[in-house]
Structures are given as C-alpha cells and as structure tokens.
Amino acid sequence: MAIKKMSTWAYSIIIIIMLFVVFITLYPIVWLAASSVSDASVVASGRVTLYPIGFNLDSYIYVLNQEGFWTGYKNTILYTAAGTFTCLFMSTLAAYPLSKKRLVGRKYIMGFILITMFVNGGLIPNYLVVRALGLLDSIWAIILPTAISTYNMIIMRTFFAGIPSELEEAAMIDGLGTTAILMKIILPLSKPIMATMALFYGVGFWNDWFKPLIYLSSPEKTPVTLFLRNVVFGAQLALEQDASTQAADLTQVYMTIKSTTIILVVFPMLCVYPFIQKYFVKGIMIGSLKG
Amino acid sequence: MIKIHGTKGSLVKVLVFMLVVALTVTVVIGCSKKDDSENSDTNAQTEDNKTDIQNEGDEDETKERPGSWVSDELIEISMLYKDEGSYPYKSDWLIWKAIEEKTNVRLKPVVVPASDYETKERLLLSSGDAPDFLSRFGAGHENEFLPAGLLVAVSDYEDQLVEFKTKVEKWGLRAEIEDLKQLDGKYYVLPGLCEVPWLELSFAYRKDVVDKLGLKVPEDYDELVTFLKALKEEYPDTKPWSEKWNHKATGRFMGPAWGTEWHWGGHDVAQYDRENDTWIIRAITDEYREYLRYMRKLIVEGLFDEESFTHSSEQLVEKISTGKAFLSAANMNEVAEWEEFGRKNIGPEFDFQMMVPPAGPKGKLGAKKGRLYSGVAIPTTTKDKPYFDKVLKFIDWMYYSDEGVELARWGVEGVTFQIVDGKRKPMPDIKYKWFNPDAPKDARIDFGLDNLAFINSNTKEMHYELMSEEEKAFAQKYEETREILPPDPRVKYTPDQMEEMSLLKTKVNDYTNEMYLKFMLGQASIEDDWDKYVETVKSKGATRYVELKNQAYEATKKARQK
Fold first, then answer.
1. pTM, two decimal places
2. Do A39 and B344 touch (CB under 8 A)?
3. pLDDT single digits (tens) B352-376
4. Chain A residues 175-214 with a CB less than 8 Å from chain B
5. What ipTM goes with this model?
6. CA B425: distance to chain centroid?
7. Residue environment code for B98-107, b if the CB has 16+ CB neighbours within 10 A, otherwise e
C-alpha cells in the first residue's frame, strides 16, 4: 500500500500539516469556550487566547435565564427531531422506487425532480404558497416545503441501487411484498446511509434560521437559532440594513454573551457528530459505488 | 400499467390511494381562498365574549386624566416589534401589562430579531400579512413601500391624532412635518416628536490621561492636531484617534464643520447646498478635498488609526480599554461601556469624557439635527379593520401623550420609579441608564422600559431628567456654543427617478468609496490624481444623478405648496 512505501520524512510532513489544520480549525471553538467563561473586560481587551482568564459563569447564568433561550431550544429540538424523521421517511419513499430501473417513466420523474435543484420560485412565491396551504406559523412550514432534499435523495437512490438485486429476488420468491422487502431487507442494510442522511438533515434543521424567520410569527415558536443570530449579529446587521438607524439605537452585546450563546447552541451537534461520523464516510463512499 | 410485485399488493394499493387523496386535498386547499385574517377573528371573539360593561368606569377615568385614552372594550392590536439582542423580548414585561391596564389594549407583538428585521418587514408588508402597525419606522424608510400603496396616508387622519397634532403645533415642528410630505401632498409616517434635539454624538477623550499631561481640550481641528501629537509623544506606539463603523459616525458632527459629508446608510451622491438651495455633487467639492488632506496628514503622522476603516467595534473597544486609543466618536452609552472595561483593565482612574464637537473651517457648527425621531407607520390592511380608529387612538396615546411617553420611559409610579424632590428617579433596586449601576434589576432587561419600540417622543423635562450630571453639562455646552443646523430637506421621487438614481448611485458610490479609502491610505494622491478623480466621478453618472435630484426637489417643493 502507498503508506508503507512513503518515507518517514514525507509522513511527518503530512502529520505536521494536518496538525496545523486541526489547530486552525479547533482554535475558534477553543477561544469561544474560553471567552464564554472569562471576564468580559478581559475578553474586550483581547487577552484571552486559549484558556479562560477571570473564570466566571455570569454569562451562562444570564443566557440560561432568558425566556427566549429556553423556548427556542425546546423548539429547535422539536423541529430537528420531527423534521429529521419526516425527511428520512419521505426521502426513503422517494429514493427507493427511483432506484429501480424497472420504474415506468423513471427518467422523466428524475428529470422533473432535478429541475427543482436549479430553479426556485423565490422568497415571496414560496411564502404565498405556504400561506395558501395554511401552514404559516406552524411547525409544518419548517418541515414540509423542503422535506426531500434532492441532493440527499440522489445519494440515497445511488445507495439503494447498489444493494444487490439478488437479495430482493430471493425475498420475492419467498413471498414478500414490496413494502415488506423495503422494511425487512433494505432498511436494515441501509444503516450507513440513514445515519448520514439523519446527520445531514438533522444539522440542517438545527441550524435553520431563515425558514423560521419568514414563516413563523409567534415568539413561542421560534427556534434558538434566531435568538443566537440576534445576539451575535443584531447590531451589525441592523446598521448595514437600515440607513435611518440612529447612533443611540445600536445596542452592543458583550462578546462573552455572544460566545456563550454560540457554545450552547453548537454543543449538542458537536457531541453527536463524532458518533455518527463513522457512518458518514462509509455512507458517502458506498453511495458512489456501483452494485 | 405499473406492475406491483408481490401477492400482498393490497397494502401497497391502500397506501397509494391514501397518497393520492392527500395530494388532491392539498391541491384543493391550495386553490381555495382564505377570507378573513386571523386577527379580526380574535377581535370578533373578544367582542362577543365581553360580558362586563366597562364603559362607566372608563369614562370617569378619562375625565380625570387629561391626555389619556381608554378603549371601551378590550381589543388586541398587533405590532411589529424589533427584538434587540441586548434586551431580549420577554412576554411578562411590565410594559405590556401596564399598557393593558391603562388603555384596555392588549398588544400582540410580532417579534422579529433585529438582525433580520428589514427582511421580515418587507415580506409581511408585500404579502399582506402585516400587523396592525409597525414600530421603529424611520422617516424616509416609507419611500420603498409607497409605489405599491402599502402604507396608510396618516396625514389624512391628523385630526384624530389629537396629541400628535398638539405637540406638533406647540413645539413648532410643523415645518419638519411638512418636509415629510410626498409628491401627493400627504405623509405616511408618524415620527417621534422631540421638544429638544438629542445631540448625542461627539468626540470622547481619555480624561485622566489628558489631565495628567495637562492638555487643553481642543476647541477646533487645529488644536486637535496639537492634542493628538502630545498624546502620541507620550505614547509613541499608539495611534491616539481611532474609530469604528468605518469612521462614519464621526461624519455626523465633523462633516458640517468642514462643509462636507460622509455618513452611513450609503453616502449620498448629492450634497445639499443651503445657500443656493440646490444639490451638488458631494465627493468632488473643495471642502471634501480639504477634509481628505487633513485626515491623510493625521494618518501619515500616526495620529489617526487607519485600521478604523476596517476593524470591528469589538476591536475598537479592545484598543480603548487597554489604553491604545484615547479619542473616538461615541455617545454616552458607549462611553459608559468603555469606562466599565477600562476600569478593570487599566485602573479606577480610567475616565472618558465627551467634548463638544470642535469648530472647523466652516465655523462652530454641530451636527445637523432635526427633532423628528423614528416612529410608526400603519399598513393599509389595518385601514379595513373595524377597530382602525382605536389603533389610531392608541398610537396617539402611546407615542405622543405625556402619559404614554412617561410610561415608556419610566414605567409605573411606585413600581419602577418614584418622585423625589419633584424629579423622577428609578426605584433603588432598578438599574436604569446611569442610575443605580449596581442594582440587581435592570429597567430595560427586566421591565421592558426604555424600549426603542416605544420611546420615540420626548419632552424637554424628561430629556434632561434622564441625563447624568456629566451628560447634562455636555448637552448644555453643546447647545450653547455650537450652531445646530437644520436637517437637509427631504426629496421625493417618482418611481422612474428612483430606479435610475439607484443604478447611478451604486456606480458612483462604489467608485467614491474605493477612492476615499485609497486617498486616506495613500494609494492615490490627493494632489496629483484629483483632477482625474473628479472627471471619473462625473462620468460615472454623478452629474446625471444630481440633475435628477434637483428636478425631483423642484417637484417636491411645488407639491409642498398644495
């Protein structure tokens, strides 16, 4: 194999470069974690680098006392769970039939779906459609409009196409119907792709702020991402957007509050990722192999 | 025919049938029309459910409290509310309860984060789903919504807005209100009214260092150079004058002193020439050149921090609180923040003080300040609602009556403030602006007071009452020693003009912004490259822009005479 043939010299260079990349990637998160438990004025003076100075949990206490934070978090978890499940369910139902070459009109259906990847109605038409369906200000406005991501569905389809058809034929001879084949044979074999898709969709729902912004209006329904976005970007974006903003209107939020909110929102995903990432690599790669 | 495999095909058939039904139902719903909006349903229900007659008690109350208003039945009014990250929305704030108690109006805020307020506002207005009124609405912002007729012409209802009209006449604001009129002779925004202009922006300097060195606070921009040089001598590896927000905030008060302009919101291509009552191209005047020369000199001598154009506000705070910058433009809120950090990083002697804007080549001029603040607009969808007149009355009370203004700023007497020696003071356990800095509760965060959604108007009494001694001294010196220029006239455009001008504006501004930085940083020469620069600015469309603007201005002036 290539690794054995590489000289130790080249190998160490690669290790050093990779360590460097790891450091650059990790540093912002380490800094955020450190500044979130540091004293605000020390952070403002730029003295906090890798470890906290003036350790205190004030900003955590402040953020965790915000009503908006808790309702937001509850909503985010709800949307992510319900959304990921719905998306997986619907994507599977779409990908599996499309993976069978014997499906009538397969090429045309695929073409029709592919067009949606490139062409979009725009903000206002989307809003009007969602409103006409009576979905405004409800969880379904977040989940249904993009329940099947075309890109993800194509990966799933390729994966399903890669499962040997002999398995299915054997099952059919034994008398299983299509749904039973899907549930008893295909799904158990699809753990890698399901985990990958769950991660893709899950992260997408966890991070989504745009759909909640435009479709939701009750403060009890907004997810925590909007809270986070407002805390981190509120003053800066308000300034860029509104020419009539008066100087005194712009209120600044301490950097420590910003870092704390970021850490609290990102933390769950950071924890989940390492456990799923073993499927992640397998899932993508398997999707690309022919059966 | 699609072949469905398996003997157990009935299950699949059932699923397919259900799916077809679901899709059909969806399509049918999508094609049907929704008639009433949800809000009018809620109000209809509330009116139906009302059993108690509250009329008698309310009428007595209204007679006792002049300038007050109570709705004769409990109604819900929705408003667009901008949620600030520094005081996040809380549904149990005192302000919501107090409003309901005083006026029988339950406010239903549509909470939108400040980071994306504009997007949501546009979306709601264009789709017809707007709430009953929009708060934090700045004068001038309404222009983009007028071609589609999305806002109510509030000037038609001025007679119903008794408090508004009274204040306009009493405080001599009629001229500024006239200036808000569009080409059809009507105006579409109800601005906040201030009895005195709020002069909040100026230079702030490190008082303890300046006192230690025995420096004189500069009265004009030449003295400012000496001031900065002395600071630089004492601290050679600092750049004493640093700014944030691309140096644009300073333009508000420095511009008039130099007879030129640069400010945020996209520098305008045109500048108002008050003497000749016409508009000229801004970025090519001799005054602008003088200003560039002055700043360039400061940058070359290391007195002005050229990173100001690009660094973030956090980086500026870092520099200030660690003693790497001694002068910056600010308002009192920011100064308080810097002092808090500076005291921890450097020591308790750290002190920042505001100075009155220095006099410039054009004289002792302060900022151009009007007395209209951001205010309220009403979408046309509200006009069709049965409780429209109550919405008007509520806005009139909340934003213009003494009672409403007091509630927004001070809250409820005995709960959040008390009267001490004839002056209002917050309760001792409540932190409010510079009052009671170590108190456990915060007026903004815990009670919803001093909320920018409601504090648009101001009386002279309340304006000064809220200031610390330091701020009051600054404000009074500013008013006494500096001439406050009136704001530039507002020009109204036809949609065709707006379209052409916005195209030209982007072209010209991209170039002038780029050259502004190049001149400042020495990448282009203010002496040698100037003539070519002037020619390019004109050829990019500035001449045509100013021509259009003057045409629109003439039309606006004629319309005002209607």
1. 0.75
2. yes
3. 989 999 999 988 888 888 888 888 9
4. 175-181, 209, 213-214
5. 0.77
6. 26
7. bbeebbbbbb
